[in-house]
């Protein structure tokens, strides 16, 4: 006998109602991924330090060129509102007070991964491709390298490149701004 498990999927509206009514609070470290409320992994010191280094580096290098948001929601569809570690966004005077950034506002996203590497690679990256996010960096803390995905098509990226400590890369939107990989991992 096969048992079929039914899952309740949520929309962005329902998710926000749970936040507004206090069902979900700041203590609930969750994000909405394809209609499911996913608990985020606790952030350890290595992950936090890498996010902080990247934030400082990108703010300095992209000052007045882009807005850097840290671990804040982006609105991808009616059923996905992930919170990437870093979002590199078009600048807006209201700093997105009127609403979370959408794919049209996003230059690139960065996910810092250690224990979540498979989830980020196998679940989040395809969602980002499906939503036409131009570029994703997966900072792989386990292997001390950056996986760069760009040129989305359907639910995948046409190009995936690996960058090691001694290499330099840049965001496609900012080809004149080199980022040395070793600066991210120090």
From TrEMBL:
Top-level taxon of the source organism: Bacteria
InterPro entries on file: Nuclease_put_TT1808, Restrct_endonuc-II-like, Uma2
Ranges of residues in domain Putative restriction endonuclease: 14-177
Name listed for the protein in its UniProt record: Putative restriction endonuclease domain-containing protein
């Amino acid at each position: 006998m096969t048992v079929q498990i039914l899952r309740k999927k949520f929309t962005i509206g329902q998710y926000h109602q749970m936040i507004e009514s206090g069902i979900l609070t700041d203590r609930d470290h969750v994000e909405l991924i394809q209609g499911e409320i996913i608990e985020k992994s606790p952030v350890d010191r290595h992950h936090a330090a890498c996010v902080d280094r990247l934030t400082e580096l990108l703010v300095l290098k992209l000052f007045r060129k882009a807005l850097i948001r840290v671990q804040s929601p982006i609105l991808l569809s009616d059923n996905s509102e992930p919170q990437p570690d870093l979002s590199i966004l078009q600048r807006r005077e209201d700093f997105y007070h009127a609403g979370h950034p959408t794919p049209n506002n996003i230059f690139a996203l960065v996910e810092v991964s250690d224990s979540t590497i498979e989830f980020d690679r196998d679940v989040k990256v395809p969602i980002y491709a499906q939503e036409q996010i131009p570029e994703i960096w997966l900072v792989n803390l386990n292997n001390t390298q950056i996986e760069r995905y760009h040129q989305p098509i359907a639910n995948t990226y046409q190009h995936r490149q690996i960058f090691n400590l001694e290499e330099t890369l840049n965001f496609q939107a900012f080809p004149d701004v080199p980022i040395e990989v070793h600066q991210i991992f120090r």
